[in-house]
Amino acid sequence: MTTRRRTGRRRNRPAGCLLLAIAAIVIVVVVALLLWYLLAGRLRLPGPKPPGPPRPSSQPATCPDVLMLSVPGTWESNATDDPYNPAANPASLMLNVSNPIRAKFPNERLEVYTVPYVAQFSNPVAIPPDGQSSYNNSRSEGAKRASDKLAKTHADCPLTTFVLAGFSQGAVIAGDVAAQIGAGKGPVPEDLVLGVTTIADGRRDIGDPGEATAVGPSPAGVGAEVALRGLNVPGITMTGPRGGFGTLSNRAFTICAPGDLICDSPRQALNPANILGSVNILVRAAGNPVHSLYNGYQVDDNGTTATQWTVNWASGLIENAPHPAHS
């Protein structure tokens, strides 16, 4: 009897060891997934700003009449770039807008501020890892820096008016900040915003009330974030449509070239159920030829390109902007 009992106990040990090994593997996998999500970062967008004091009748002489906020796209900026002389990427599309506008107006009339942020989009399924910052971290940083600049300028220069423009990831950022302002929750009052233009906006959703007015052809597709609404993988949170620009809707414009998957994605083409395929399509879309050619993309029969139209639009707003008193 004693011999048999001992034999039975010995036979149970391998099964117990196997269960312990499986439990250890499960714990390791869970911890690895949690670390992946934490390191990739959550999307953090600026919250509502409290209302400021009543506006004075004049502002300091150092204040510009107008601030133009330019937000570059993915791989067109970095966190340490000079906002007044951006050089992170000499081929940045937004330089074709900001440089001509800066040259048109004196400093006392216009301040052009190019938002410096990491401007990257790491592929979370790349093997080996590509070493870039995640979309969530990049977009969060860009949105915070854009909002902080607007809020700081308004605090120092309460009569300065604003023009916003952005491309690609920068269009998402500029559009999000403008939508907050239009909802009365932004860093500056809506009546001080002269207008906003987004080029290749990943949250484009033309057709709903309160959306931006299309400049040039209006493709039938939607922004990649709208097509992928609900996709949430480490470092990439697709937030869907904005729901309009609120009181800024009559001052909001958007440009999208047909075939640019960043802003012209078929609603069913990018499927959150097919996470790996959808993420790979999304990452590749930022470098597709259509997306990189807006400096030559024509938006009217006169041959006006997307960047030329944006320059003309912004210049008109700045020329007709108020001339606040200075003290």
Short structural description:
The protein has 327 residues and is of the alpha/beta class.
H-E string = HEEHEHEHEEHEEEHHE
| Distance between the ends | 104 Å
- Summed over residues and divided by their number, the pLDDT gives a mean of 87
Radius of gyration: 25 Å
What is the name of the CATH class?
Alpha Beta
Number of structural units classed as domains: 1
The side-by-side strand order for the widest beta sheet comes to 3-2-4-5-9-6
SS summary, helix count:
7
Total beta strands: 10
Share of β-strand residues: 5-15%
Give the structural class: alpha/beta
Percent range of helical residues: 25-40%
So, the CATH homologous superfamily?
Alpha/Beta hydrolase fold, catalytic domain
| CATH architectural grouping | 3-Layer(aba) Sandwich
Largest sheet: 6 strands, parallel
What general form does the structure show? globular
Q: From the 3D structure, determine the CATH topology.
A: Rossmann fold
**Unreliable stretches covering 5 or more consecutive residues:** 1-8
Biased composition (Polar residues): 131-140
Pfam families: Cutinase (PF01083)
Family: Belongs to the cutinase family.
Keywords: Disulfide bond, Hydrolase, Membrane, Serine esterase, Transmembrane, Transmembrane helix
